[in-house]
Design goal:
The protein is of the alpha/beta class. The chain is about 40% helix and about 5% strand. The chain has 8 helices and 6 strands.
């Protein structure tokens, strides 16, 4: 009999909202293989391997559902570490992951910077891990590593500015803002001109582009498939989705992401350091959007 999966640390639940268990909700083994699901999964080994702060489960996930989410997340972390060129996904145990423990309204997932927790909801968290991890990168590197007195986030967080004044810093801030500035000049972004403020926040622009980048790298390495769906969407969902970049527009930020990921991998593996670079307002080489 499988043992019950529980939180991996007693103190990571600070700020969480644990409510009554959803009695009568059906068990849906969406992510893990049923044969493998009969085996135990060692959360502590996963936590140590990827340098995570810990895992947290909401009370309304039964044990089968906990195993499903944990096994899907294990596969997703393996793919994410391949893309990011490091196993230090948790950034020296700063970032944790919660399953169905911190839901907010109808959001599929969200990131809590002050608790450094990524929450994936019970029913709809699948495909959202890469997006929320993009937020974790943005916040942690901006707040603690590549610092700027005016902006905690690399990208400026909730700012909707076309470019950020006085946002000089190191290579992480340089590339992250070059990515956002480039996206803001594309035809793809212009389609969102009548959408709400949320879609224009610089941190959200970065996170959407980051999840698309993760999908692209997995696709080109022929790692795209069922085991990646907990991490991100399918490539066609991105290129055909009105909120994301067309393939031609994505190609404009691809080299910037490659450089950012290389720098992240070196730093996370203790082989790099922050090097001062100017704030860079990228000049697009593609066609100008139609006004």
């Amino acid at each position: 009999m499988r043992r019950k999966l529980t939180d991996t640390a007693p103190d990571i639940a600070s700020g969480g909202r644990v409510e009554t268990y959803w009695i009568g909700q059906p068990v849906r083994n969406r992510y893990s293989d049923r044969g493998a699901a009969m085996d135990d999964i060692d959360l502590y080994s996963i936590m140590r391997k990827y340098s995570l702060k810990g895992f947290e489960f909401g009370n309304w996930l039964n044990n089968d559902e906990r195993h499903d989410h944990a096994m899907a997340c294990r596969d997703a972390l393996r793919n994410l570490s391949w893309v990011m060129k490091t196993n230090n996904i948790g950034m020296d145990s700063m970032v944790g992951i919660a399953f169905g423990a911190r839901g907010r309204n109808s959001a599929m997932a969200h990131y809590e910077p002050h608790y450094n927790m990524i929450n994936l909801t019970k029913e709809h968290g699948s495909t959202s891990l890469a997006h929320e991890y993009g937020h974790a990168l943005d916040w942690n590197f901006g707040r603690y590593i590549d610092q700027n007195a005016g902006y905690n986030w690399l990208t400026g967080g909730d700012s909707v500015a076309s470019r950020l004044p006085a946002c000089a810093g190191g290579q992480f801030r340089h590339y992250a803002n070059a990515i956002v500035d480039t996206v803001k000049k594309t035809r793809s972004y212009f389609r969102l001109k009548d959408e709400g403020e949320y879609w224009h926040r610089r941190c959200e622009i970065f996170a959407r582009a980051f999840e698309q980048y993760v999908c692209f790298r997995l696709k080109t390495a022929e790692k795209d498939g069922a085991t990646t769906r907990y991490l991100c969407k399918s490539w066609s969902s991105y290129t055909k989705g009105s909120m994301y970049l067309t393939e031609s527009d994505f190609r404009l930020v691809l080299p910037l992401f490659d450089k950012l990921v290389i720098e992240f991998g070196k730093y996370a593996n203790n082989k790099g350091k922050v090097q001062a670079m100017p704030y860079h307002d990228t000049v697009m080489k593609g066609k100008a959007r139609k006004q």
